[in-house]
Amino acid sequence: MTEAIADDVGLLRRFELRLLRCSLSPSPTPPSPPPPPPSNPLHRLIDGVLSSIEQGDYAAALSSEASHHVFGFASAFAFDDTVECAERFHREAEGSTATFLVGGFESSWLSVIDPESADGDRAARAVLLICLCVAALLAFTQRNVTGPVERFPSFPLLIGGTTYAKQESATGFWDAWARSHLASSGADVLGKFSSLTDIVYAKMLLMKTKDVCAHGISCHLPGSLSWWLSRVIFLQQRILDERSSSLYDLLQVYIGETLKHFGNLEKVTSYWGSELYEGEASSIVCMINLEAGIIENEYARVDSSRLYFNRAEEACGLQLSVTGVLGLRTVHQVDAKAQMVLVNNQDQEKNSNGSLVRFSELEKDDFVTQGADKAPDCRVGVEDCDILMAPKLIADGPAGNSENALQDGSFSPLSLGSVQQAVVLVQCLYIKKSKRDEELSRWEMAPYIEAIDAQQHCCFMIRCFCDILRTRWEFARTRTKQRALLLMEKLVQGVYEASPVAAQRIQCSYGVYFPTIPALRKEYGELLVGCGLIGEALKTFEDLELWDNLIHCYSSLLGKKSMAFDLIKARLCDSPNDPRLWCSLGDVTNNDEYYEKALEVSKNRSARAKRALARNAYNRGDYITSKVLWESAMALNSLYPDGWFALGSAALKARDIDKALDGFTRAVQLDPENPEAWNNIACLHMIKKRNKESFIAFREALKFRRNSWQLWENYSHVAMDIGNLRQALEATKMVMDLTSSKRIDADLLDRVMVKVEEKCLRQPNYTSLKSVEDHNPSVQSLPATVLSNESRDVSGHTENEMGSSRETELLVDILGGIFQQIIRSGGDVWGLYARWHKIKGDLSMCSEALLKQVRSYQGSDVWKDQDRFKKFALASLQLCNVYMEIAASTGSHRELTAAEMHLRNTIKQAVNFSNTQEYRDLQECFDEVKKRLQAVSTVHV
Questions:
Q1: Of 488-492, 515-519, 811-815, the least confident
Q2: Is residue 646 within 8 Å of 637, Cβ to Cβ?
Q3: Among 122, 282, 401, 774, which is least packed, fewest CB within 10 Å?
C-alpha cells in the first residue's frame, strides 16, 4: 500500500469515527487543532455532510451538495404525494447508489491502471453514502425517539426550493407506502410515526451500499457499515408491534460482523489508532456490547444478553454489586431499615491506567461547556411526596468500604461516565426479562435507578431512560402512583421541548432502550387508564391511531362498542387500504369478511389477519383450516409469542401429531417457561413411545407448574418406563400430597415393588427373599420375574455393589413412607405393604398386612364374582405361604393351624369356582399345609 493510499484510508476511517462519535457519549475537546480541509472533492463532500450531522442539522445534510451529487435525478423528480411515486423514487435511489459506487467508466478505466486507487475511490464513495444514510437515520431518530419534535416533510431528500415547498404540502401517501414496506416483515407499525420514509431510505441504501461494496471493493470496506445497519434494523424492530423473525436474522448477521470489527480493545485500537481519545476505545467496545445485549434482550435471549452486558461492564471498568445499608425510605420514618444500594467493587483508577476515569472527567467538562447539564429535569415538581426519591442512608458505607459507598443515594467520590451510566441502567432490562414481573423483581431494579438519579451529569437520553424505569417501578406502588403519572407526563412534554438540541439528545440514544415517542405516549395513555382518566387516554390513543386500545376503552371500559365501530368506519373512508383498520373492524364485529379484506389490501401479507382467521376457524371446530392458516401466519413472522402453541393445538385437534409436536417445540424455544407447551410435548412423546424425551419434557413442565397432580402422575409413569424408580416414587408421593392421598396409583406401586424386589435379590445384604425362596420353592408371594434365575446375577465390582445397595435402601425407605401414608386405602395397598415388610425381613408384620388384605376382599360378593375371587385366592395363597415360612423358621405350628383353617373354609365356600386354576392352587396349598402339620405333630410325638 502506497503512502498516499494509506493516508486516504486513515482519513476515511477518521470520517467514520467522527460519524460514530455523534451517537456515542459526549467527546472531549480535541487536544490538537482540527486538520486542514481535505483536497479530494469526495472528501470535501463527506466533510460537509459530517459537519451538518455533528451540529444536529440533519435536514441540511440531506439537502447538501453531496445529496445532489449522488442523487442527481431528484432535482427533476416529480415529488407527487402518491404511493406509486414513492416506490419509483426509492427504486431510482437504489439505482443511483449502485451507479455512484461503481463510479462509471472512468473508475473502470482507472481500476485497470491502479486498482488500489480505484478501491480507495470506491471506499470514499461508500463512506459518503453511509453519511447520507446515517443523516436520514438520525433525522428519523430525532423525530420519533429523542426529539425535539419538529415538522418535517415526508420525503427523504430535500433538494431545491420549489421541491421543498412541494414536500411540505405532503399528505402522507409516502408514509403510507413506507408503513406498508416496513410491515412486510410480518408485523405492523405500532402507532403513528413521522417521516417513515427516512428509515426505509436509510435501510435500503445502506444495504445496497453493503451489497455493492462486498462485490466491488477488494479492501478498505468501511468497518462501521455493519454497525449502522444493525442500528437501522433494530430501530425498525422497535417501531413494530411484534418481534420479527426476519429482522432478527439480519441483526444476527450485522451485529456479528460489528463485533468482529470492534468487539475488543485491540481491534478498535488497530482500526483507528492515534485518532482515538484517551479511553475512547473502551467506550466504543462497551457501546457495541451494550447494543448487542439490548438486541438479544428484546428478543428474549436472556442468557446471550447477560453475556454482552457483562462484557460491557468489564470494558468500562465496572464490577457492580448490590449490598445493604441502613437507611430511611420515607420522610416520617424513624427506624432505619436495610436498603439496597449499588456499589462498584473494582478500583477504577487502576483500570486501563485510569483512562476511563480521565475520559469521564473530560466528558463532564464537555457537558458544562455545551450546556447539556442544564437540560430540563423531568423530576422537578414531582417530589412533593412523603416517599423519598432515594433512600436516606445513615451509615458511612457498606461493609466498611466507605470509598465506594452510597451517601444519601449517590456515588462518592467517583462519578460515572455516560457509557458507564448506560451499563448500570441496562441491568434493569436483564432483571425484568430474567425474572417474574412481581414486586420483588421491581425492587431489585431500584438501586440501579437510584444510582443514576444521583449523578450530577447525565446525557439527555440516559436521564430519560432512568426516568421511564422509575415511572414503571413507582406506578406499581400505590403510594407513588400519582408521582409516577406526573413524571410520565413531564417525560412526554420533554420530547417536544426545544432544549437540549438534537445533537445532544442523540448521544448514547442507541445504548439505552428508551421507547419511541408513539410507544411512550401509548404507555402514558395506559397509565391514564390505570388512574381512571379514560377521556384523556382516548384522545391519546386516537391521535396515535392505536385502534386496539381505543376498542378496549370503548368496549370493555365504557361499554360503547358502537362508538368504536363508527370511529373505525370513518377512518376507513380516509384510509381504505390500511389492513390494521380492517383487522380492528373484524375484532369489533367478529366477522371474518373484514379479516379477508385486510388480507386483500395487504396483498396477503397481514399476519394479524391470518391469525384472527385461524382462531375463528379453531373456535368453529374447523381444525384443519385453522392449522393451515396458523402455518401461513407463522411463515410470515415466526416470533409471534402464542402462534406456535396455537398451531400445535390446532394440529393436535386435526390428528397431525408430528405437526403438533413441532408447534409446541417451537413454542418452548421462544418461551422456555411455558408449562402447557412442555406438558403437551411430553404427552405427545408418550403417544409416540419416546419415554426419555417425554421424561425430559415433563421435568421442564414441572419447574413452572408444581401444583398439578396430573402432571406429576404422568411424570411418574414416564419415569417408571425409563427405569428411574426414585423419580417415579417421588412423583407418586407428590400426587398423594397434592390430592390428600385420594389419588393412589396401585398399579404403578406394584411395578415399582417388582423392580425393588429384583434389586433386593441381587444384593447380598438383602438375604431374606433369597433364603425364603431357597427354603420354599413354591412361594408365590412374588411375581415369577422376581424369582427367575436371571435375577440372581451379582456384579463382580464391589463399588457398584455398594452403590446399588445404598440406592436400594433409599428406594425401600421411600416406599415405606408412601405405604404408611396410604395404608388404609384398600386391599391392594395392604398387599404391597406386606411385600415391603417381607423385603425388610419382618415376616410377622408381613403376615399381619396380608391378613388385612384378605379381610378387605372378604364378603358375600367374593363367592359370586370370579375376578374378586381370584384376588381373594391370590391373597390367601400369599398369606398361607408366609405362615409356612414363619413356621419353618420358628418351629411353631400355630401359623400352620391358622393356614389350615383358612384354606379349609375357603375351599368349602369356593365350590362354584372349582374349575379355575386359583381353586386348584388353593387345594395344593391346603395339602402342603396338612403335610407340614403332620410333620410337626410327628416331631412333637
A1: 811-815
A2: no
A3: 774
